[in-house]
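dumping the sequnces here before i forget
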Amino acid sequence: MTTTATSTLTDRYVAATLRRLPARQRTDIERELRASIADAIDERLESGADPTEAETAVLTELGDPDRLAAGYADRPPYLIGPALFVDYTRLLRTLLATVVPAATVGVALLRTVQGDTVTGVLGTALGTAITVAVHIAFWTTLAFAIVERVPSRRHPGGWRPGRWDPAALPEPPSRRIRYAELVSETAALVLFSSLILLSPVLSIERDADGRPVGVLSPWLWDTGVVYVFVAVAALSLGFSYAKYYLRWNLALGIIGTLVNLAAPAMLIWLATTDRMLNPAFVEAAGWSPEVPRWIGTGLVVLAVLTILHSIGEAAGQARRR
Amino acid sequence: MPDDELLSTHLQELRRGSVVLACLLILKKPNYGYALLELLQRRGFAVDANTLYPLLRRLEKQGLLTSDWNTDESRPRKFYRTSAEGFEVADLLHQDWETLNAAFRTLRDEP
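..and the predicted 3d for all of it:
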C-alpha cells in the first residue's frame, strides 16, 4: 500500500467529500470512494508511477471534493436554477419597484409629521430605501433557493413554477392616452409658470404702502433663478413633445431624463436652502415659523417623488425599445 | 475552424445523457466504479470519474441499477448491475437514439 504521508491526502480528500453529505450515506460512499481512489492509484503504480505523484494525480482528476459531494447529494451546484430564475427576477423586480418607494415615502412622511429636519427626513428615507431593498433581495433569494431544493419539485405532477400566458404581455400605452397626457402637461406648465411669474403682483397680502407682497422670495427674481426654473420646466415639456413625435433613441432618452430631473433637483436645492418663500410674506400673513418649514419639506417630498417617477419611466422606456 | 471552447460546450450538450444509456447497456454484466470508468473510456464514452460515481448512485436510487458489495477480495467493491426497469428504460432510450439518428441522417441527405 501507500506511505503514511500519501494516505493522509486521500483521507483528507474523503473527509472533505463526506463532510457535506447526510450521515446515513457516508459509510457506503466512503467505502466505495476509497476503493475507487485506491483502484485508480494502483493502475498508475502498475505503469511505474511514483506513489505520491500517483495519488496527487488521481485526486486532482477527481476534482474539488465539494463538487463531488454536490453530485453525490444530488444537490444543484447553483442557488436558483433556470426553471425558477425568470419567476425569481420577476418577483424581485416587482417587489423592489413597489415596496421600496412605498416604504420610503411612508417613512419620510412620518418623519416629516414628527417634525424632523429636511436633511433628517432625507437621510432616514434613504436609509429606509436601502434597508428595505436589501431585505427584499435577501429574503426573496432565500425563499427561491429553498424552493429550488424541495425534492417534490423535480417530480412530474409536483409543484411547477407559474405558468406563463400571452395575456400577461405588457400593453403598449396607446397613442391617444399619451396625447391626452401631453395636453394636460402643457396646460399645467402654462398655468404653473404664469402663477409663479405673476406671484409678486397677484399676492393677497399688502405691505404698509398697499403694494402686494409676493409669496416667493424676491431673491429668485434678483438672481434670475426663477426664469431658469421656468425655462427648465418648459424644456422638459419640449422633450415630452420630442418623445411623442420622434422615434425614441438612447441620446434623447438620456437628455430628456436629465432635463426632467433638473426641475425637481432645483426645487430641492431652493427648499433646503430656504430661498423659496418671501420672509416678508410670511410675516405679513402672520404664519408661525413652523409653516415655511412644512412647506419646504412638502416640496422636497414632491420633488423626490417626481425624480423617482422620471427615473422609473425612463427605465421602462429603455427596456421596451 | 469553429471556436474550441464553443465546440466543446456543444459537444458536452450533445453527449449529456448518453452516458446514462451507455451505463445501462454496459452493466448487463455487473461491474464496479473504477473498472466501469476504464471500460466506458475504452469504448469511446468520455466521462469523468466525478461525474460517473455520483451518476451510478443516482441511477441506483432511481431503481435502474441494483448493487451488491463484493467482499471476496481484499478490497471490497460495490458492483452495479442493470435492473429489469433499467433494461426497459435502456430500450426506450435506445429507440429514441435510433429515431434521432435516422432523423439526422434524413436531414443531412436532403438535397
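Residues 4-72 of chain A form one domain.
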